[in-house]
Amino acid sequence: MSKLTLEQEAGRRRTFAIIAHPDAGKTTLTEHILLAGGAIRAAGAVRARGENRRTRSDWMKIEKERGISVSASVMTFEHDGKMFNLLDTPGHEDFSEDTYRTLTAADCAIMVLDAAKGIEPQTLKLFEVCRLRDIPIITFINKLDREAQDPMALLDDIASRLQLDPAPIWWPAESGNRLRGMVEIGTGRFQPYVRKAAGSDEDPEHGDPLPLADAAAHFEGGEQADLAEALELVEGGYKPFDREAFLEGHMTPVLWGSALRHFGIEQLLKAIGDWAPAPKVMKARKEAPPETRNAPEPVELTVDPGSAEVTGFVFKVQANMDPNHRDRIAMFRMASGQFRRGMKLKVQNTGKQLSVNAPIMFFASDRELAEDAFAGDVIGIPNHGVLRVGDSLSESGLIRFAGLPNFAPEILQRVRVKDPLKAKHLKKALEGLAEEGVTQLFRPELGSDFIVGAVGQLQFEVMADRLGEEYGLDVVFEPSPYAEARWIGGDKADLDDFAGKYRPQMARDIDDQPVFLAKSSWETGYVGERFPKVSFMKTKERG
Ligand code: GDP
């Protein structure tokens, strides 16, 4: 039993995600953050854990072959009195929808840049998602042990392309073979970098910081004087770090290092602990499940992380960690209260009650049964399809958080199973994958084909692989006549009028919401003009 109050427990949580362009070093950094946090003992553990998972779940072959991570997971560790929840986001652009959902559960993001490459296309996309959700960003410029771009050019890029004030916390002294260390802005403390000795397997410790004036032994030629001079320019040229501006999303503290050489990692972890926000007060509605008789009007309210009732939302459903069981694990991000094992929670949108007897906490070292958890924590709730992405759960069953969005798919394909006797199986399998959010499913009102939608082509490959491996279904995807899907809304009479005229192009999504399947973007524009009272929506809020 915790001696801290609910506010204190919530206040010491740091729930964050790492965003990066593929290859910038997200996996390596994750591993070294876990090392610095004392959660693992040796580098290589994250990958090894990944390998185990892969042997258990064959569909992750894709992940292995392509070197990308498809499924997001959570790693929890305690360090320096704080509880860190690291949410892993998939890096590949085809999974942006998944990443988006994961970021809804994060209170802060670490943006990793490759020091030689700076901002890359995927960095930009992920950054935009963070900005949309008002998630503050800490920047980590990685791979200093390789030849880097000019540090000022890197910061200027952040300022001009992200419209974000960079506040350097440290400043690098050279890079690549000449990397000497880094100096702390403001204090002038110098953190030396110690290179691995030739032929050695062990990475050396980098030693303790010391005043720059005393660090002559770490430099060659005029390097030390150059650094002192650069420092003056830097201290005058950039705004000092301001936590308020950071929390409001106007400023990013910039740290430097080498994930691979475990350099700058403690400093990064300290920045997360000191500056990343604790779970925030969240907007919600108090609302009875749909179809409740005589339900009172919904009321807007805010949920304080320290309030007593356990509330939260499902931001991801992860399937089949074990392919022999059709279990799904719903990733539940807590917004308030103290969760205890065995607790009963209700799903707001269905009214269903769940006894959470075997919740999973994702401690970095291993999975463990959670005894209790607080706002900011993520627990895995095993279930058989009861929980979906976007669901709100609470003790009363009356708290509803704004839904997670579904995005209109950019590719729509028809899916058919080769063996016609398995059509029923296909329906179930497709529904399962849609519930997990792997792909979207549309059932046309006429005819019996299923239309499957995705944001990227890779999602279809993951889907085909999983249909084969987990459901024993051999499927073919065929082009569909549709180019775009739009959720429609408006008055019933207007909707009926529209749906009547476009019956062959009307479909239902997994939640039975009406969807218009357009043959081209021109047609989307055309129906929009012809039916001004009907709204055609590119996103749908779930939950
Ligand atoms: P991810 O795709 O962002 O997860 O990137 P990884 O962590 O898999 O790293 C991509 C490659 O860059 C791997 O070969 C890493 O060993 C390498 N790498 C990561 N961090 C560093 C670093 O700090 N220095 C150097 N030299 N290489 C690094």
From TrEMBL:
One Gene Ontology term from the biological process aspect of the record: regulation of translational termination
Pfam family, one: EF-G_D2
Gene3D superfamilies attached to this UniProt entry: P-loop containing nucleotide triphosphate hydrolases, Peptide chain release factor 3, domain III
Cellular component GO terms held in the UniProt record: cytosol
Record-linked CDD domains: RF3_III
Stored PROSITE patterns: G_TR_1, G_TR_2
GO molecular function: GTP binding; GTPase activity; guanosine tetraphosphate binding; translation release factor activity, codon nonspecific; translation release factor activity, codon specific
Chain residues that bind GTP: 88-92, 142-145
The entry's keywords: Cytoplasm, GTP-binding, Nucleotide-binding, Protein biosynthesis
Tr-type G domain segment(s): 11-280
Subcellular location: Cytoplasm
HAMAP family: Rel_fac_3
Family in the record: Belongs to the TRAFAC class translation factor GTPase superfamily. Classic translation factor GTPase family. PrfC subfamily.
Known role: Increases the formation of ribosomal termination complexes and stimulates activities of RF-1 and RF-2. It binds guanine nucleotides and has strong preference for UGA stop codons. It may interact directly with the ribosome. The stimulation of RF-1 and RF-2 is significantly reduced by GTP and GDP, but not by GMP.
UniProt name for this protein: Peptide chain release factor 3
